[in-house]
Design a protein that fits this description.
Elements lengths: L18 H39 L13 H15 L13 H18 L11 H15 L2 H4 L13 H9 L1
Helix pairs in contact: 2-3, 3-4, 4-6
Length: 171
């Protein structure tokens, strides 16, 4: 036996969506798209460029480092600004919360002393190892044996001794 369907409504027609419902769906999708763009895409693009703009501004105005909220990034900013401007006071803005911070400040003061070709900055270094390294480098640079005598030689590295400093000057 064979069944024949002659009803033209089979399969049933898809419900018709009115123009108003289509506009509502499109508006909803646009709102979702805008939310995704504003919360994910824009910060990913402009967030990094804003940080780069602040870091680039340190070449002109080191006070932009104050605008950086992350202390490690701010310390790097002060370090770079100090070296760009040969301004030792910016080295003191590097926080000394841990051993790496002390290292960064000591290195900063040492490098600025070499840039300015003065041993006076070396004496302001709280870390005796960095002070010795600073005296050593400035003495070699200026070929001044009197600066070599300021080396305390209590560092564990034994790299920056008065003897090695005097030998370096005589070469």
């Amino acid at each position: 036996m064979r069944v024949t369907i002659t009803d033209e409504s089979y399969p049933p027609p898809a419900p018709k969506v009115g123009l108003l419902e289509q506009i509502v769906v499109i508006i909803f999708l646009l709102i979702v798209l805008i939310m995704v763009i504003s919360t994910v895409v824009i910060p990913a693009i402009f967030g990094n460029s804003q940080k780069k703009n602040i870091e680039n501004q340190t070449q002109i105005n080191p006070e932009y480092c104050d605008l950086i909220s992350d202390s490690n990034s701010a310390d790097k900013c002060y370090y770079n600004a100090a070296l760009q401007t040969s301004n030792e006071s910016l080295c003191y803005k590097i926080k000394q919360n841990g051993p790496l911070d002390s290292y960064q400040r000591g290195e900063c003061l040492s490098k600025v002393a070499v840039q300015k070709r003065t041993a006076d900055i070396c004496s302001k270094n709280d870390d005796i190892t960095w002070a010795d390294k600073c005296y050593f480098e400035v003495a070699i640079l200026l070929k001044d044996p009197n600066i070599c005598t300021k080396i305390v030689e209590k560092n564990s590295y034994d790299q920056w001794t008065t003897e090695k400093c005097l030998q370096g000057i005589s070469k």
